[in-house]
Design goal:
2 copies of one chain form a homodimer.
Chain A (H helix, E strand, L loop, with lengths): L18 H29 L3 H12 L3 E2 H8 L3 H13 L3 E5 L7 E5 L1 H25 L1 H14 L2 H8 L7
The structure holds a DNA duplex (30 and 30 nucleotides).
Chain lengths: ~170, ~170
DNA sequence: AGTTTATGTCAGCCTTGTTGACATTCCAAG
DNA sequence: CTTGGAATGTCAACAAGGCTGACATAAACT
């Protein structure tokens, strides 16, 4: 089923992909990712946090009340690594960890107002860059952008990604 | 094609960009980048190298005979950091450092055959994923993908990126 | 001759990833 | 009710790869 999608373009020539073009795409990913993280990095730095904190804040905000285990799966790091970050966020009063009501072994994670404020600042910086890029590239491009990115994810991850709010545009 | 993309082409054009959509794009970047680096990471690991080595190999291959300084600009790290990586690559016989002919203070960097072999293995893994993603998404999407990524880079970087072989598709 | 540039290198620090070991809590199956 | 195992937290140790600062050379420039 994955095949046959080509026909969509009226039998158009199906991607002549030279190594050159592919390498160019690879470089585009590399450089764009740098830009993508540059703005939040500056804000984080001013607060004494790193990218790991940003990721935690982002996904806690995304899925209010998520458990630690769920967060581990999404982030793809070890619990020890996440825990270090999480601990400082909790100590600093950005994140609240509540004992689960159904299963009291679990902890449900929430942003405090303070945490929400920082998350908002970080994501606003990032959204602003994304918005600008989208504007510069146009609507057609935006659709293509998402399609390629999604196709590039590992299967397991893509499922999680698609299940995260907003199913399909 | 129906030019102008959407319907509205008037003044404040197109793109209703909800925060939701922007956040979704941000997550797509995050997850896709993970997939993007997953395959090379496995190969690198087997050789006892890390992502930093991959980046060095990639750009030395891209611009044969580049100087250390040039590489520093492209990679955006300190010379100490690059040097650590470069030293092991030279010691292991993957990279050759020749004294500059015009200016003998400079070192020109080249991949040895061994270095070329590894670079090829790494980039082939990455190109394969990129190729698959492109195929799955279609030609339109590919163009859009590159456009958005380029718009997302910092200006300075974008210039370097565009000047790197293959000027514009 | 004196200054600047390109590179290398030593030392030390930080973040964020890893493993392994172990304690605690507490759900759920027997 | 006991117990196995899941979910979580935490301690310790280590590695990669960023960073800064200081200093050494050699070559080029003025």
């Amino acid at each position: 089923m994955a095949e046959g999608s080509n026909s969509a373009m009226g039998g158009e020539n199906l991607l002549f992909l030279t190594d050159e073009q592919l390498r160019k795409g690879i470089e585009a990913m590399f450089f764009a990712y740098r830009g993508f993280t540059a703005d939040p990095d500056r804000i984080l730095d001013a607060h004494g946090y790193g990218r790991a904190h940003h990721r935690a804040l982002h996904f806690i905000n995304r899925t209010h009340g998520t458990t630690v285990n769920n967060l581990l799966n999404i982030l793809g790091v070890t619990k020890q690594s996440l825990n270090r970050v999480l601990r400082t966020l909790i100590e600093d009063g950005l994140v609240e960890s509540r004992v689960g009501r159904k299963d009291r072994r679990e902890r449900n994670l929430f942003l405090t107002e303070k945490g929400d404020t920082l998350e908002r600042a970080l994501s606003e910086a990032q959204r602003e860059r994304m918005r600008a890029a989208y504007r510069a590239a146009g609507p057609q491009a935006v659709a293509g952008f998402r399609q390629v990115l999604e196709a590039m994810m590992d299967d397991e991850i893509r499922r999680q990604y698609l299940n995260m709010r907003d199913r399909r545009t």
